[in-house]
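== Sequence and structure of one protein ==
=== Format: two labelled lines per protein ===
==== Data for this protein ====
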Amino acid sequence: MYDAFILEKLESFNRQSGYKNAILYPNRFEMYQGTKRYIDLTIDTELSWKQLSSVEIEGVKFAEFNNPHSAFYCLSRNQMKEWIKSGRIFKNQVVNVGLLESAATFCLLECFSIYKPHPSNLNYFEVRHYDSKYSKLYPEPESPYTLSAVNNSSNIPIVKES
């Protein structure tokens, strides 16, 4: 994570979201062949941003998402107390892709509503996935959630070496 304002963004969301049990996760991305891919949005073709609750804070939109996994979370002291008191039942259950994803996400989803930045402001809060395995598995470059630094314009001449 390269964001110097991570704690300020988390604190602002916690204070202003209006939901007692809401927590904020970042959007995950991978860099692959000069392309930034928001992998949770390219893996899941059935997005549910509009079907779940959303909130706007200081012009930034956040929404619940049908794939809340980020492999990252940060709880405030009060959230940690709520989580401990919740009587959570997660006991090594595989409910969200695999054991690691379940442990990192489902254990909190039992107690909290998980929000991520809305697609209209994806990069507001993001974390880089340092592998490129999802980009290789789901290489669709046409996704609106893929930002390329490579110009694929047909106006660029191709030089063939002899």
